[in-house]
Write a structure and sequence with these properties.
heterodimer, A: mainly alpha, two-stranded antiparallel ribbon, about 5% strand, B: two-stranded antiparallel sheet, about 30% helix
């Protein structure tokens, strides 16, 4: 799910909550994306993200009120696994440090072995390993999509 | 009542300080020895701040209804994104025959 940008080039201290700033012509410093102010701008940014990262997962776009982002405490990035009864099975820590695709994979496998239903006997993964991973979206898709 | 001398007062304060140093860690260790283990979102000392927005396993997932992103090609072959008219409702994905668990990955590009 595409939500608010974490490090837009027009980031303002106190508004976006994370450092950003101009990338110039150096792509190694990240994509040149401003914080979308309309849903149309958000769609353009999400499309660029999908194209550049070659993502194949179905993508939803959060509304401009950030309804899903707020409900799941999802900014700047996060993973939630939901069982077939609509219950939370796993909610990793907030990114970047808490972002844990391996934990989500572990819980998904446990759910599938339990008819898709969460139960208290399904162990919760430990906290995410130390940083040094690829970018969130790339890493999550590589880990989860088989 | 006899007034304490300066050296007696100093000794008393020293004993209190020593007791605090020795007893507080012991009390904390005793509190941890009740068999409870920190949960996945429980902050470890010196690692990270408390996660006040953590959702707990077993609770009903917050529902949402959002559009799906569709990517089409324009007449020049360039990718153009648009949102679908049909909206995806999380609660509609569960409880159905053949339903599968859902994994939500929240992220942005930057």
């Amino acid at each position: 799910m595409y939500i608010r940008e974490a490090h837009p080039t027009d980031a303002q201290p106190g508004r976006d909550g994370a450092p950003g700033g101009p990338r110039g012509a150096n792509p190694a410093r990240g994509p040149d994306i401003k914080q979308p102010k309309t849903l149309d701008e958000r769609v353009v940014a999400a499309t660029k993200c999908i194209q550049d990262l070659k993502l194949t997962l179905p993508v939803l776009v959060d509304d401009m009120e950030g309804s899903a982002e707020k409900a799941y405490g999802a900014w700047p990035d996060r993973i939630a696994v939901i069982d077939t009864a609509g219950k939370i099975a796993y909610h990793c820590g907030p990114g970047p440090r808490g972002f844990n695709p391996a934990g989500a994979e572990q819980v998904l496998k446990a759910l599938l072995a339990n008819s898709g239903k969460w139960s208290p006997s399904i162990p919760q993964p430990p906290e995410a390993p130390p940083p040094g991973r690829p970018g969130p979206a790339e890493n999550a898709e590589k880990k989860i999509v088989k | 009542m006899r007034r304490a001398t300066f050296s007696q007062t100093l000794a008393l304060l020293g004993a209190l300080a020593l007791g605090t140093v020795l007893l507080v860690p012991a009390a904390l260790a005793a509190a941890r020895s009740d068999g409870s283990a920190p949960g996945p979102n429980t902050p470890q000392q010196g690692t990270r701040r408390p996660d006040s927005k953590a959702l707990q396993p077993g609770q009903t997932a917050p529902n949402f209804e959002l559009p799906r992103l569709i990517i089409e090609k324009d007449k020049d072959g360039n990718a153009v994104g648009k949102v679908s008219q049909e909206r995806v409702r999380l609660s509609a994905l569960s409880g159905l025959a053949g339903a599968k668990p859902v994994c939500l990955i929240f992220t942005s590009y930057t």
